[in-house]
Write a structure and sequence with these properties.
Distance between the termini: 88 Å
Shape: elongated
Mean pLDDT: 75
Order of helices and strands: HHHEEHHHHH
Number of strands: 2
Low-confidence stretches: 175-179, 194-201
Strand order of the largest sheet: 1-2
Largest sheet: 2 strands, antiparallel
Helix content: 55-70%
Amino acid sequence: MSLLRRGPASSEAERERKQKAELRAVRLERTREARAATRMMVAPEHKYGIYVSIVLVLVAVYSFLSTDVGQVNEPVHGKAHYVQATLPPHPAQAIVLLIFALAAAATIYWRRRLVSGLSYIVTGFFAIQTPLPKAASDLAYFLFLVPAGYAFWMLMFRMNKEQKAWLNEHYPPAGGTAAAATRNSTRRAAASGGPARSSRGSSASAGASRAAQIRSGRYTPPRAKTKSAPRKS
């Protein structure tokens, strides 16, 4: 009984499953080829990366040299009091940001989009942790958005757009042009030979026959419709 149940239906399902697996493998192989063909940077991506690194280096130098005024807990006669004092700079975080910014700029030498993009994203995480004075505290979110935005712009928009263009150029969709030509021909046929054309032809032939009857004297115009008087009860 089990052999009978695994008849044509099971073989058809197995064939369909194998066909889907083959199509998936072909799609993955084409995607790998597109990624390999579009992994290099294209102008002006490397130029914008240099600009982002310059901004991060300037911010690191500003954080290294800047000081801030804040409240410090100092014991006075055995009691804790908050007094205003000049806070020292934070050289450790600023130096870390400087190193990562220069390393991200150095990756542009190889022009690899994925390597440079990941480097700038990591640099953005260190940039948002860099301490700044209170007057420039809102600049921390800007420091993360600049390198992360550059990386996403390069990887998500530029690279994906080039991959789609590469796939359409090397592997055009099968039947796309034929289907478009069929749709265009159907639309032209519907616009030229539809019911509107037949109605125009019939009205023209009826007008021609009526004109011939008038010329021959056998045309009798239709009687005008008159309302009948109401019956008297």
